[in-house]
Design brief:
By secondary structure, the protein is an alpha/beta fold. The protein has one domain: 3-Layer(aba) Sandwich (Rossmann fold), CATH 3.40.50. The protein has 9 helices and 10 strands. β2, α3 and β3 form a beta-alpha-beta unit. α1 runs parallel beside α2 and α7 packs antiparallel against α9. Bound molecules: S-adenosylmethionine. The site of S-adenosylmethionine (SAM) has 17 residues, from α2.
């Protein structure tokens, strides 16, 4: 569902960053291959995309979807992105919604920059959860943001990594850092994907939300109905997390 919400914007943002026909791209933390396939469309038959992930089950799904899509310029490999040995020199290293999962994303960025050829591109897209809101604001959305913030603090993760990413690029020794952020905004009714997506995001981290004391099982179960009810009562527009796309050209030998 995350992919259905963000993919059209991801494609535009990767294109804006400079991924284009003929590029050979490494997609780190590719998961089930949604980003890998959209990058493959961007680079076309003269280019290629290698997706890596440390979860073999996701890679099996990625392979299956890729076969069904008919794309022939995509490959997958199991591996830990923090242990990649610089050597293969890609035109671009890309990733979406992956740095959030790392204990030291800045160190990973510096290392990944060494897998890019001089003049090549490094581009990541990450979200900021505290940007989720309703206009006018309603308690359900304030709760969603509060719960996400509590559970990510409990798990030691940065739920707003998207907006911290430009500074992280700079700390990784990258120069001329560019950033653009987008959010999807919809009228908050049951036909829209966004209330379902926000409710599903919450359920997917439900055990952590409960363990951290952020929310109860019942609050999580009832969230979507409550959000729809409050949104209808106040005629709200609902905004998703911001997806921040950050990119830089790798010149010379970055730090790390
Ligand atoms: C939220 S998914 C994003 C998948 C895909 N990039 C997308 O946007 O659809 C994050 C992925 O990062 C992978 N991941 C997390 N840490 C990793 C690591 N150290 N090395 C490789 N993959 C990792 C997870 O297995 C998961 O598939």
């Amino acid at each position: 569902m995350q992919d259905r919400v963000f993919s059209p914007h991801s494609t535009n943002l990767f294109r804006q960053a400079g991924v284009g026909p003929g590029d050979h791209v490494l997609d780190v933390g590719c998961g089930t291959g949604a980003t890998t396939r959209l990058l493959a469309e961007l680079v076309g038959p003269a280019g290629s995309v290698l997706g890596i992930d440390n979860d073999p089950a996701s890679l099996e799904v990625a392979e299956e979807h890729t076969r069904a899509s008919g794309l022939s310029n995509v490959g997958y490999r199991a591996g830990d992105l923090t242990e990649l040995v610089p050597g293969e020199s890609f035109d671009a290293v890309a990733g979406r919604l992956v740095l959030l999962h790392l204990s030291d994303p800045a160190a990973a960025l510096a290392r990944l920059a060494r897998c890019v050829r001089p003049g090549g591109l490094i581009v990541f897209q990450e979200i900021s959860c505290s940007r989720v809101r309703a206009v006018p604001q309603i308690p359900a959305m304030l709760d969603w943001v509060g719960w996400m913030s509590m559970l990510s603090a409990y798990a030691g993760l940065d739920a707003d990594i998207g907006e911290h990413l430009p500074a992280m690029f700079t700390r990784a020794g990258l120069a001329d850092v560019n950033a653009v952020a987008v959010a999807v905004a919809v009228i908050g009714d049951s036909k829209s994907l966004v209330p379902r997506y926000l409710a599903q995001t919450l359920s997917s981290v439900g055990p952590l939300a409960v363990a951290s004391g952020a929310a109860t099982r019942q609050q999580i179960r009832e969230f979507r109905e409550r959000l729809l009810e409050e949104a209808a009562d106040h005629g709200c527009v609902l905004y998703t997390q911001e997806l921040t796309s950050v990119w830089a050209r790798v010149e010379g030998d970055p730090r790390g």
